[in-house]
Give the backbone structure.
Amino acid sequence: MPTRTRYDGVAIAIHWLTALAISAQLVMGWTMTSLQPGSYLQFSLYQWHKSVGITILALSILRLVWRLLHKPPPLPATMPVWEMQVAKAAHAFLYALLILLPLTGWAVVSASPLNIPTVLYGILPLPHLPVLSDLADKRAAESVLTLVHEIGGWILVILLAGHVGAALRHHFVIHDGILARMLPRFGAQG
Amino acid sequence: MNRAFAFLLLFGIQLSPSSAHAAQWLVDPAKSWLGFTGTMAKAPFDGRFQRWRAIIDFDPAHPEQGRARVTIDMASAVTGDTQKDVALPQGDWFDVKAFPEAVFEVQTFRAKATPSSYDAIATLTMRGVKMDLTTPLSIEVSGDTLRAKGYVSLLRSDFGVGQGQWTSAQWVALEVATAFEVTATRIP
């Protein structure tokens, strides 16, 4: 079996779905926390943010399993070793955040004194995380977890800026085809 | 004469409870409902109780002797929105583990100027809190069928429905409209 030069269709689909979902999460997260509490829009945004967040968690678990079973194409040999190391570390951090951000969000919801049930997309009920939902001082736990979730969000923004910047640099400056192997090629065999 | 009158009065008083029993009604659940309308994040939503039972004693000739007792299974509230349906039975809201039932008890029906219009002088006991709740309603009796329809607004905060951060009206309005429609048949 020859070494792949491109990501496979599943990996590409999950990557771009996640990209879309994260963009939506950042916009919703920013908007909902800036609005005055009590509006229908704000309430709805929180519910959507929870649904999309858990979707990202599920997609990312699926993606990690897929990645373990399907070796991604190797980085081009023209890349300096230190760049490869930075790229690998950045990807590891991105994966970690894809899992940890939804989990901390879920933790915030579970510890919230408002005790609002999560119903994904208005259909699928998601229980609160154990322990957190039974804490004596939920308010304190919630504010700490909210801070962790928020900081995680900002770290993700910084990493994404690096991720997108690196992809564009590879494509437009180095011309090593790294971006193209993650782009869908409809009707073509990778 | 005075003695005779006193005797009659005594006799009459003794008679009246049994005459009230002459008009008892059996609720037809298929033709009756008990519902409420709340407001969450400024958006109204409807709900209803799927299980409740009522003892109704009403004679249009003597509405003041009428009585009614409605027992509501608080765990049977449904709104059609899963999120609300999961939240409602919990401790912040109806707390159905501690307070499985609410009781609406009518002590008397006060006839109003319009025909078939009454005020039910009643109490509502919910979440362990008993409050007066005079409820305007219409009651029509034709043959062996009784039809009643009523609407009353209450404050959820009076009963402790909505605890903690929900005590305020920030997310959920304190006013809750309740309404019912009952069709019952005469118990022979």
About this structure: DSSP finds four helices and two strands in chain A. Chain A touches chain B through 18 residues (CB under 8 Å). The mean pLDDT of chain A is 93.
